[in-house]
Design a protein that fits this description.
Helix content is 43%, strand content 22%. It is an alpha/beta fold. The chain has two domains: 114 residues, 2-Layer Sandwich (Enolase-like, domain 1), CATH 3.30.390.10; 221 residues, Enolase-like C-terminal domain (TIM Barrel, Alpha-Beta Barrel), CATH 3.20.20.120. It is globular. The structure holds magnesium ion.
């Protein structure tokens, strides 16, 4: 069986179409780290390890350090023993969620190439396509209206970043997006920007505008599990954790404390092995599942599309990193037709 001979990576700069501002970050050019695992029969598995420091604590520098360290550790490993490859990575890099994710995606991609499968088939082949939302970042309400009107031609679901510096402007952004896209279902993501009572108040004000958000994502600080539960108990809409749900261990804690109605899994947090565990845990607990993304390249988005199609497990999809950025011209393992992503 083919063996791994080399770990390497490239950095790809992706200018964003609109400066991507959330309650926690502002990005005009994202820098994607593309992980490559080469086998001794000349194939190259590709993954992505694009870090967001406030979520996992990792940076471009730490990811590159970790990938360099794994070059020697993975050499000679059997590609077909993909779980062993992932276990080696997890043991050596226990705190490096994003670096592990990139290596896991590359390992599974390489395994699938060798065995003549798509990753969606590898994950179970449940669906051929899935539907994603589009995110509207923290922008002035007038621009939000224009973006929403344009998006409404293509997307039935829009995700709105809130929790910005001004609460009235947050609400006005939601109102303008509703005016610009009256038929669209709206999701809100505060990226930890609200206090618990403020979040409940905000959802009530949205309701008063005639808008019931499809989901309320990470309204409060990630460490404030009680605050999350308070919001969950006081709004009728599903409350999902994102930053508070980094890996299976943190999801287990949220489930034990009945703090959320579901979680937003991102491969840059959980990798493939973590995502599979979280899917099982949430399904057993009857919780909702969302798959999201960072500002990733088509490599990371493709991995998300394949696990979403293969498992058929997700209630909500937010895989839009590839359209928020300018086209990269990179090779893709999925196709996009508007809001529909197919394998
Ligand atoms: Mg989020």
């Amino acid at each position: 069986m083919p063996k791994i001979v080399r770990v390497s990576w490239d950095i790809v700069e992706i200018p964003q179409r609109v400066v991507f501002e959330t309650a926690r970050s502002k990005t005009s050019v994202s820098r994607a780290i593309i992980v490559k695992l080469k086998s001794d029969n000349g194939l190259i598995g590709r993954g992505e390890a694009t870090p967001v420091e406030y979520v996992t604590g990792e940076t471009e520098q730490t990811v590159q350090r970790d990938l360099a360290a794994m070059d020697e550790a993975l050499r000679g490993q059997d590609v077909s023993a993909w779980r062993t490859v992932c276990a080696t990575v997890r043991e050596r890099l226990p705190e490096s969620h994003t670096a592990c994710a990139g290596l896991e995606i590359a390992a599974v991609d390489l395994f699938c190439q060798i065995h003549g499968l798509s990753m969606a088939q590898f994950f179970g082949g449940r669906k051929g396509s899935v539907v994603s939302d589009l995110t509207i970042p923290i922008v002035a309400p007038g621009l939000a209206f224009d973006l929403a009107r344009e998006a409404a031609e293509t997307y039935r679901h829009l995700k709105i970043k809130v929790g910005g510096p001004n609460r009235d402007e947050d609400l006005e952004r939601v109102r303008q997006i509703h005016l610009g896209a009256p038929e669209a279902k709206l999701r809100i993501d505060a990226n930890q920007g609200f206090e618990p009572e403020e979040a409940v108040e905000f959802v009530r004000k949205m309701n008063a505008l005639g808008v019931s958000p499809e989901i309320v994502e990470q309204p409060v600080q990630k460490a404030d599990i009680e605050g999350l539960r308070y919001v969950k108990e006081n709004v009728p809409e599903p409350v999902l954790a994102d930053e508070a749900a980094v890996n299976p261990r943190s999801v287990l804690k949220l489930l034990k404390l009945e703090a959320v109605d579901g979680v937003n899994i991102k491969l840059m947090k959980a990798g493939f092995t973590g995502a599979l565990d979280i899917i099982s845990m949430c399904q057993a607990a009857g919780k909702k599942l969302m798959i999201g993304c960072m500002l990733e390249s088509p490599v990371g988005i493709g991995a998300g599309v394949h696990i979403a199609c293969g498992t058929g497990a997700f209630d909500y999809l937010d895989l839009d990193g590839d359209v928020l950025g300018e086209p990269t011209g990179m090779e893709q393992n999925y196709t996009r037709s508007g809001e529909t992503l197919s394998v």
